[in-house]
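Hi V.,

Quick status before I head out on leave. The structure for the redesign project is tokenized and pasted below; the design run finished overnight.
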């Protein structure tokens, strides 16, 4: 018992493999890019990447160059796209390590081209068009200029247009009319690039939701993120047989008897209604338990659900167990797959009014990751 961590996130790599295989089937002829940004959505980028590749993913996706380089440092040689980098980024290092890069304007494209000359090799770029999200990417009016600049880079040997891509704005519902309009605009932008002379570039638009429910958005490559980890708050995707990969657990550090009316945690936002047992859980908002979970989120102890009592603190929170038997060292489950009756992350999402992504990526470094299953 003494050598066991006080708090751990148990990650099922078998679940990651299962989800990857499901996404591959739904993607049809398209390849799968497993998105492992934000340290694999808090699950661990390297083990998740290996599990996804073993299950049939052929690409990996990261936000930053540093994330991509960590994959390369772990010996992972699969194609990697890094898409969220600004002026002055480590382009030369990325190019030297065979990392694909995204460009959404001509200035950034030129900077990547100069870095390719210094690296002595050709940079692989994915041209991003803004089809309506209004975030990153090239405005449609400037798309011809970006395509022209990329083709000039191909002609002088500094660039290779490896991809054409965009991102959906209503990510939870690919059947939203705005997403369907984006689909049409992306198709038109890709066709323009083809007429202009771009050859062999993979087209990718579909996120998790579109991969699972909108086949016409899959094109050559899909980029599932949260679904890779078996998570999604929407009912249509719950029915897709996704398997949650993470369960968050801890061991009680203290259990004590208190009288009725005992105030609990900061501000006494909770008081016991009767004589009761209070149990201390060594997880707080520094570990990724949202402060908003106080008096709201369920936790599983001794086979029953108990709501967090009072405010979540930086390092800990309290449970009012009533008469439920418990002792220091007993395991509690904040969320899991629900197979043993424990709360699921979907239940936390519902009660907190947030999304699964926000919770799992917030699980902090003090929480030990323990992996089960084969990568």
């Amino acid at each position: 018992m003494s050598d066991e961590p006080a708090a751990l996130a148990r990650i099922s790599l078998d679940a990651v493999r299962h989800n990857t295989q499901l996404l591959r089937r739904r993607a049809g002829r398209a390849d799968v890019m497993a998105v492992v940004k934000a340290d694999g959505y808090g699950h661990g980028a390297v083990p998740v990447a290996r599990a996804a590749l073993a299950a049939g993913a052929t690409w990996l996706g990261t936000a930053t160059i540093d994330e991509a380089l960590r994959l390369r440092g772990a010996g992972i040689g699969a194609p990697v796209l890094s898409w969220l980098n600004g002026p002055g980024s480590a382009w030369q290092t990325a190019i030297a390590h065979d990392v694909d890069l995204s460009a959404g304007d001509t200035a950034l494209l030129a900077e990547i081209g100069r870095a390719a000359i210094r690296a002595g090799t050709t940079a692989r770029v994915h041209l991003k068009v803004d089809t309506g999200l209004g975030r990153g990417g090239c405005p449609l009016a400037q798309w011809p200029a970006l395509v022209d600049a990329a083709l000039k880079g191909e002609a002088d040997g500094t660039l290779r247009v490896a991809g054409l891509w965009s991102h959906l704005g209503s990510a939870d519902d690919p059947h939203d009319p705005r997403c369907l309009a984006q689909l049409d605009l992306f198709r038109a932008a890709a066709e323009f690039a083809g007429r202009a002379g771009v050859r062999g570039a993979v087209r990718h638009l579909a996120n998790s939701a579109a991969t699972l429910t909108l086949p016409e958005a899959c094109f050559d490559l899909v980029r599932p993120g949260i679904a890779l980890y078996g998570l999604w708050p929407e009912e249509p995707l719950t029915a897709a047989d996704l398997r949650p990969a993470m369960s968050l657990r801890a061991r009680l550090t203290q259990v004590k008897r208190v009288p009725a009316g005992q105030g609990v945690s900061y501000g006494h936002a909770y008081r016991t209604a009767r004589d009761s047992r209070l149990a201390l859980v060594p997880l707080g908002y520094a570990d990724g338990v949202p402060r908003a979970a106080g008096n709201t989120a369920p936790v599983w102890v001794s086979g029953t659900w108990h709501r967090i009592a009072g405010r979540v603190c930086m390092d800990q929170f309290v449970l009012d167990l009533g008469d439920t038997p418990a002792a220091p060292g007993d395991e509690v489950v904040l969320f899991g797959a629900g197979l043993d009756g424990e709360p699921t992350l979907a239940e936390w999402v519902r009660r907190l009014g947030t999304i699964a992504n926000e919770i799992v990526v917030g699980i902090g470094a003090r929480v030990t990751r323990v992996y089960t299953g084969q990568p």
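Above is the designed sequence. Residues 13-230 form a domain with the TIM Barrel fold (CATH 3.20.20.10).

G. will cover questions while I'm gone.

Best,
W.
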